[in-house]
Amino acid sequence: TEPSAVKDEL
Amino acid sequence: MNIFRFAGDMTHLISVLVLLLKIYATKSCSGISLKTQELYALVFLSRYLDLFTNYISLYNTLMKLVFIGSSLAIVWCMRMHHAVKRSYDKEVDTFRHYYLVLACFVLATLVNEQFTLREVCWAFSIYLEAVAILPQLVLLQRSGNVDNLTGQYVFFLGAYRAFYILNWIYRYFTEQYFTRWIACIAGIVQTALYADFFYYYFISWKNNAKLQLPA
């Protein structure tokens, strides 16, 4: 699986 | 960070400040749903699990701390503060919010970006935030009259969501950013829930009249 993307939103 | 995202965060912050101001200045939480506030506390606790492991910026860290801290403080005030808890409209605030929590949890285990604890908690918090305003809207609908600060609180919360949608549209065109589809769909649902409230808010604003929701 793809690594989950960085969550830069609140 | 673009202007829409910043405006969204700021209106979110203002909504929290308006609520704290109302509780602090009037020592009353009438018109405020404790169930919605509990759901928001749960939303922030489950979403910001990465607070200490995933550093993005000082801004992000501070905002996360503010949202966790303020939501817990509001729940504490409404449950424990002797004067504030007396003004709580317990009989009107009867929404079965545990069902929302359960449904969002089940959905999060089924629909997530990755089946890991952190990703399931993140998806759960996104789904729960989308519906967390429901007990508050039902409470306002039932009581009909909405006091000024409560009306403004809900208005700023709705504005926050609307700005986030503009932010995603902006990011889509400038960064080809469209990985957050779970957040986008949930965000659109969440914003749509405010449509009715916005309609009556603008009518009362246009007529310079007190905000009233039809029964």
UniProtKB/TrEMBL annotation, chain B:
The keyword Endoplasmic reticulum applies. InterPro entries: ER_ret_rcpt. It is a multi-pass membrane protein. The chain crosses the membrane at residues 55-77, 98-116, 153-173, 179-202. It is found in: Endoplasmic reticulum membrane. It comes from Tripterygium wilfordii. This is ER lumen protein-retaining receptor. Belongs to the ERD2 family. Keywords: Endoplasmic reticulum, ER-Golgi transport, Membrane, Protein transport, Receptor, Transmembrane, Transmembrane helix, Transport. Its main location: endoplasmic reticulum. GO terms for biological process: protein retention in ER lumen; protein transport; vesicle-mediated transport. GO terms for cellular component: endoplasmic reticulum membrane. One of its GO terms (molecular function) is ER retention sequence binding.
